[in-house]
Specification:
The protein has 493 residues and is mainly alpha-helical. It folds into two domains: 1-191, Up-down Bundle (Growth Hormone, Chain: A), CATH 1.20.1250; 254-493, Growth Hormone, Chain: A, CATH 1.20.1250. Helices cover 75% and strands 0% of the residues. It contains 21 helices and no strands.
Length: 493
């Protein structure tokens, strides 16, 4: 088989799915009008996709074993293309949500299966290079999603964010059919229905709470409290059940591999920060600095370029430099970029936005390639598909938790900073009444202008607080790197 054709086919499927994780975010206002939905209702377009994807990721290993990995991969790509076309022609919110559920369900297997195929295609000593190529699609897709979505919406129509999947998907399907080998089916592989049900409910309930929590007021909402409680109980039941049955839904041998267990924890922590930044920065640029949607996308592009460059470099130097040192450099650069962002203000120029974005993207690229390779470096080949599914699930959960926590922290920061700023608004403040920045607070119009300016400044301070907190996140995993085993070459799985 041709490794080049396998890699190109896998990359096409990976990029297609990765783009759809964020491509719809920037076009929600356009969808809202076309589908006659409220702002609260339209958010289900994102929530439905994420929940369906999270639920269908864990059974990837079982389905690939029973159906054959290549066949299952082809069905997943075909289903994703069909669901994308249905999303593009949806005429109501109900139709859109149903089709997005299908899209997320079919797309759930694309990332873990593509990772497992590449790990089996390349020898162990070239896993870092393989993960560098695969990581370009996984990491750059969400970064470029808002840019591509904004461009297609401005030039064509929001429905093209779904139609664009057709040519990419067809290329992937043809390449997979021609180059990817089939794996033997395992008719003896049974499904632990109890474990599957417990994990499915736990993941679905947790994802629902994370995606709807900010909208519904978190613990003030009975529904969110119920979802968190159900998630906790089912997760506990899943752990107990898995430890006591002979053939659990997920093979616990995964967690006995030290590199794999630590790698999964690291990717969870790292994704707490990555997608949170991608969610916060576009809103900061558009709502506070006044950048239009297309220009916001262009300002986000250097982040993707930095990621691609770093991944390719990391793939080339793998084996020559201890991977733990490369990951450490990436974590420190990422933290440095967030520190620079925590010093932004209303007058920040495009140069600072581009430089910090490129620096952060470069840091993330240095992290992802060696971390992916080290995570699977000591894992048995028979566990790779299951391992890739759990790796993908933890990456997505980390992203969801990061976005939810930082959004809640942003909302809290707004209230806190506004209350603090309002304390300085008195008739005796000479700056407000007589100084050069006087707003005429003795008039209703002046008070309205003052209130708007206070809200704007409180928003800025809240965003900067989020950026500062995100600066600390990359420093948390540093001690865990000492526990990882250095990679050894010359042996195949």
């Amino acid at each position: 088989m041709s490794r080049g054709l396998v890699t190109a086919s896998i990359m096409a499927a990976t990029v297609m799915h990765a783009l759809d994780m964020t491509i719809a975010n920037v076009v929600l206002p356009h969808m809202q009008g076309a589908l006659l939905a409220t702002q609260d209702q339209i958010s289900w377009v994102l929530t439905s996709y994420v929940i369906a994807s999270a639920i269908m990721t864990p059974p990837t290993g079982f389905l690939a074993a029973r159906l054959g990995r290549k066949r299952f991969f082809q069905w997943s790509v075909a289903g994703f293309i069909a669901a994308s076309m249905l999303c593009g022609v949806a005429s109501s919110l109900t139709e859109m949500v149903v089709f997005r559920i299908l899209q997320g369900g079919f797309g759930a297997a694309l990332i873990p299966i593509s990772q497992a195929i590449l790990l089996d295609t390349y020898p162990r000593e070239r896993h870092a290079q393989a993960m560098a190529l695969w990581g370009v699609g996984v990491m750059v897709g969400p970064i470029l999603g808002p840019t591509v979505g904004g461009y297609l919406t401005e030039v064509y129509d929001w429905r093209w964010i779904f139609f664009i999947n057709l040519p990419v998907g067809i290329i992937a399907m043809l390449g997979i059919a021609a180059s990817v080998p089939e794996t033997p089916r395992d008719p003896n592989r049974t499904l632990d229905l109890t474990g599957f049900a417990l994990l499915t409910v736990a993941v679905g309930a947790l994802q629902l709470a994370l995606d709807r929590g900010e909208i519904e007021g978190w613990l003030e909402s009975t529904g969110i409290v119920a979802a968190v409680t159900i998630a906790g109980l089912c997760l506990y039941g899943f752990v107990v059940h898995s430890a006591t049955v002979e053939r659990p839904f997920l093979d616990l041998a995964l967690l006995r591999d030290r590199n794999y267990a630590i790698g999964v924890l690291l990717i969870f922590l790292i994704n707490l920060m990555m997608l949170a930044t991608l969610a916060l920065l576009p809103a900061f640029l558009q709502s506070l600095l006044g950048y239009p949607i297309v220009e916001t996308g262009y300002l986000m592009m250097p982040r993707g370029v930095g990621t691609m460059v770093a991944m390719l470099i990391a793939g080339r130097i793998a084996g020559k430099i201890d991977a733990r040192l490369i990951i450490t450099a990436g974590l420190l650069l990422t933290s440095l970029s967030m520190w620079e962002m925590s010093r932004f203000n209303m007058n920040v120029d495009e140069h600072a936005i581009i430089v910090t974005g490129a620096l952060q993207g470069f840091g993330m690229g240095l992290i992802f390639t060696p971390l992916s390779a080290m995570t699977f470096s000591t894992l048995s080949a028979r566990l790779r598909t299951d391992g890739a599914a759990v790796f993908s699930l933890m990456r997505n959960l980390g992203s969801s938790i990061g976005v939810s926590v930082m959004t809640a922290y942003l909302s809290h920061g707004r209230q806190l900073h506004r209350a603090h700023l309002v304390e300085h608004v008195t008739p005796f403040n000479p700056i407000l009444k007589d100084g050069p920045e006087a707003l005429g607070i003795d008039t209703l119009a002046g008070l309205a202008r003052l209130s708007a300016e206070i809200s704007r400044q409180a928003d800025v301070l809240a965003y900067l607080g989020d950026f500062y907190l995100l600066m600390l996140v990359p420093l948390i995993p540093l001690p865990l790197l000492l526990i990882l085993k250095p990679r050894k070459y010359g042996r195949r799985a």
